[in-house]
Amino acid sequence: MWNSDNPFLNGNYAPWREEGDARDLEVIGEIPLDLAGALYRIGPNPHFKPAGPYHWFDGDGMVHAFIIGDGRAAYRNRYVMTDGLKAEMAAGKALYGGLRGGMAAELPPGVPQIKNQANTNIVGHANRMLALMEGGLPHELKPRTLETIGLFDFAGKLNGPMTAHPKFDPVNGDLLFFGYAPVAPFVTWYRADRTGNLVETRPIDTGLPVMMHDFIVTDNYAIFFVCPSIFRLQNIFKGEPLFVWEPYHGTRIGAMHRASGEVKWFSAEAFFVFHFLNAYEENGSLVVDGCRRNALDMTGNSFGDPPMLWRWRLDLRSGSIRDEQMEDIVVEFPRLDERRAGLGNRYGYFVGADSKDHDGTGFNCLLKRDYQSGRRELHMPGGGLVPGEPVFVPRKPGSDEDDGWVMAVWYDPAADSSELAIIDARNFAGAPIARIKAPHRVPYGFHGNWVPD
Predict the structure, then answer these.
(1) What percent of the chain has pLDDT above 70?
(2) Which H or E run includes 328?
(3) The CATH number of domain 7-452 is 2.120.10.30
(4) Residues in Cβ contact with 50 at an 8 Å cutoff, skipping those fewer than 6 apart
(5) I want to staple 50 with a disulfide (CB 3.0 to 4.6 A). Which of 7, 54, 120, 367 is the partner?
(6) Is the pTM of this model over 0.70?
């Protein structure tokens, strides 16, 4: 939109800067009457022309909410009003550099030196809605209006970054998360109880300052993949990319016992994982499923190597690793029935692309994998539609694992429009039971979650 040849500023990556509300959205099909709540999604929307080289991860966070009830749907979108964005609005221009390089401009007094874009994930916990970006504190929002309340630090107990991928303990409702930093101990583990009180903080020295986007937990372990996308803080002052791929370090995997804090380390060849599906314990091993890239390139307009579905078995007794590729097509943004988090799951849901000549930034199908039978089902939207992250919503609290709906926001390049598709998880390859038309296109984003009414 700014006469840029950067693909992350064009097409449906280009920002949608207007905020608004829309009621009684057009629906093709029928929304289930017992589906009541909201799907909140978040992604990057740069409000101003970038001051330097732009990476997709640099954009200002915008929340898109699809509110559903009584067979009807409404829509609302708002920027997350971070201190950095408010400073840029006051100046009338972009003030900060980004992941690909470029220093921040001379900033007014009291303005944060590093911008917290709040653009990666949005979760609800302890009656709070939090917009997350792994480089800083969460921002609390009002769930109904999407108004930004401000930074949230767990009553002053969180004084560092929080991952954009916290996990919920399905047994007791605890919120489990970590933060990473460019200085030792590099990673810190946290646990907040179901009331929102931060009750545990534990440093973990991973040995390297790396970009650690996600992690995974089981009943008894928290598992951290230390992939060699190295945090080179000095590059900020040289106008060079902040993260550098250094494969000679290999990838180390740390399994921290959640009760004792003891960490068992495993070593592997270099690879990178943005997102994990799940992990569980089985016969003295930890089984981990995630989307692996052989390498990561954060310096240009793509991520380089395509992501594929892999499984790792970490033998806690011998310290050995067995790994295998589970699918032959590109997949990313893995999701599951969150009631099975850390406990073992039969089903997983992904966005996919049926071409290996692909960097994982555009997709043409959704994939459902049955880990018990090995069966794979594809939902092909057709017509050039581009699906986003699938979110599973159980039909009822006690429903079986695949008894519910899969919800995904799609983009139609021909019409330059978006819609929310609701798919019966037990008829995954069939036509959606409802297609809710958004009032305008929804730019490609990152993550979202369903919050029951």
Answers:
(1) 96
(2) none
(3) yes
(4) 2, 9, 58, 94, 98
(5) 54
(6) yes
